[in-house]
Write a structure and sequence with these properties.
mainly alpha
Length: 286
Amino acid sequence: MFVIIGYVFMCACILGAYAFHGGHLAVLWQPAEIVIIFGGALGAMITGYGGKPLKAVLKALPSLFKGSKYSKAFYMDLFALMFEILSKVRKEGLMSIEGDVEEPHSSPLFAKYPKIAHDHHVIEFMTDYLRLMVGGNLNAFEIENLMDVELDAHHHEAAIPASAMAKLADGLPAFGIVAAVMGVVHTMGSLHLPPSELGGLIGAALVGTFMGVWLAYGFVGPLAVILENKAAEGTMVLNTIKVTLLASLNGYAPQVAVEFGRKALSSVDRPAFSELENFVKNAKNR
């Protein structure tokens, strides 16, 4: 939603001011130069990010126009789920959650929280380390190191779409210059034309530089920032799970372990202590 609002506001300011000073908007419509600029930049991106990275970029594009799924409500459900799991472990032992961990999609515990159950990365990360807690002999330090390695790998993979979009934005001004130079070359070959027509050719050539810079910093660059923020949000939710599980491994009660996880959140998504405490207790009684 904000992407559309930002685009509309930006276009209204730039094109409106240009038209207000007597500029002709029709001059800016140069399809050939747009093809040169976008085609060249996209070709370069495909060359550098072919295969799996390119598929990741295409998969991430629809998320640009959606809000973050990792909202405060999502984290409240996540903490409630982990509180229930850790409480069950504390009362009945680690083996009591073996069935929940092996088959999370058929587990009554996970079924209570559909927002969490439908997130593949969250479920996989959580159940993998709960499985290690159940059947492994790893201590808290070893599990923490393994978690850090996985988080680094996850963040690197999640950052690929943002990196690709940033490279695309970086390339657009350069290909705008390419389009402008080609326009100048075309103009130099048309010096026999009258001044009025030559002026149009020169203006069309300069539009290439304008379009390259405008597309880069006005359209594509902000999309790279959005994808970068989404990658950071995905890493944050996994880090929250990490902090909570490690606190439990170090012997803290479920209420305290959940509080450790709450502190790992940014202030925007972090619920208040009493708010989370009441929500967790009520969720457990459902």
